């Protein structure tokens, strides 16, 4: 019994001793803000010393931050990678320094021996769920969709587009008329939606907007209203994240569907990191989070209440 107690004690002391660098993308969306809050809470609860670096949407800042963490000799590095390419060199440096790297919420195009694991959703599936919702909602009616893409070159922008296109493939009545990046922000989402509306007969020719995140959808809703149309009715709104504000829009009948992305990527990341540090257990290369569809039928008021104080 005493050796078990001793092991438990040393395990607990070990977790408390960890110093982890976190290179966050920035604060482009409500979801991103929540992920930052949850990561800081998770670190605090576990006694992990979290070194936080905000990259302000720039990969070069993320690379600098990672190099800084390596120089400080941290025990591990979390990266939410803004884009999918261009990581090999810096991750090679982390590997050389024997510092495990965990990717949060976005995937990268690099050999998987450069990181310990990636905690992300299946982003192609998210796009598919959004597309399948629209296919069902529209039925056989002709439907011109406009698409607000996420940050160019980011894995969610690439994959959510792919998944949605897969869902509508074979449905000749549904076409993507326009598709442009809104950079995952409300401001850009609104701006781009305004230009779509202008180009599509004052919005009258648009049947639905598919936004790669809720913040852009909220921006688009504003643009639709300012054009004198009814979001959720004249133009259907489907997006991804399930942030509290989209449930407010759903309550008002102005948004139709969203696919939930948990902001708690750090919990599973710290779980596997602590195990890896304690006894060398290697996690799977991909820890997949859930993707759940919410519509106006799913008690948006209740969901809003349950989420509103969670750091979004
Ligand atoms: O990588 C996850 C995406 O990044 C979220 O859907 C979006 O809101 C964020 O900016």
From TrEMBL:
Keywords linked to the UniProt accession: Signal
A GO molecular function held by the record: carbohydrate binding
Designated name of the protein: Substrate-binding domain-containing protein
Main location (coarse class): other
Domain Periplasmic binding protein span(s) in chain numbering: 21-264
Family of the protein in this entry: Belongs to the bacterial solute-binding protein 2 family.
A GO cellular-component term linked to this record: cell envelope
Record's signal peptide: 1-15
Cross-referenced InterPro entries: Peripla_BP_I, SBP_2_dom, YtfQ_transport
Subcellular location: Cell envelope
């Amino acid at each position: 019994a005493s050796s078990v107690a001793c092991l438990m004690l040393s395990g607990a002391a070990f977790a408390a001793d960890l110093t982890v660098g976190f290179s966050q993308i920035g604060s482009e969306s409500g979801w991103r803000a929540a992920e930052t809050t949850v990561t800081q809470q998770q670190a605090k609860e576990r006694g992990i010393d979290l070194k936080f670096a905000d990259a302000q949407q720039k990969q070069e800042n993320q690379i600098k931050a990672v190099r800084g963490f390596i120089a400080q000799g941290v025990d591990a590095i979390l990266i939410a990678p803004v884009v999918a390419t261009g990581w090999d060199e810096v991750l090679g440096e982390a590997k050389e320094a024997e510092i495990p790297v965990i990717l949060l919420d976005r995937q990268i195009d690099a050999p998987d021996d450069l990181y310990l694991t990636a905690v992300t959703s299946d982003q192609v599936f998210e796009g598919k769920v959004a597309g399948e919702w629209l296919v069902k909602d529209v039925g056989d009616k002709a439907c011109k969709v406009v698409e607000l893409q996420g940050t160019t070159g980011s894995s969610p922008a690439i994959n959510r587009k792919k998944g949605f296109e897969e869902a509508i493939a074979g449905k000749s009545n549904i076409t993507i008329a326009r598709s442009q990046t809104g950079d995952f922000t409300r401001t850009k989402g609104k701006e781009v939606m305004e230009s779509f509306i202008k180009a599509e007969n004052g919005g009258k020719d648009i049947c639905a907007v598919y936004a790669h995140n809720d913040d852009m959808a909220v921006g688009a809703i504003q643009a639709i209203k300012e054009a004198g149309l009814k979001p959720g009715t004249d133009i259907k709104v489907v997006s991804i994240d399930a942030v509290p504000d989209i449930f407010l829009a759903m309550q008002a009948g102005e948004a139709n569907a969203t696919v939930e992305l948990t902001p708690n990527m750090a919990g599973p990341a710290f779980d596997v990191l602590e195990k890896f540090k304690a006894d060398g257990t290697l996690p799977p290369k991909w820890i997949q989070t859930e993707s759940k569809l919410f519509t106006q039928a799913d008690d948006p008021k209740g969901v809003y209440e349950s989420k509103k104080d969670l750091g979004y």
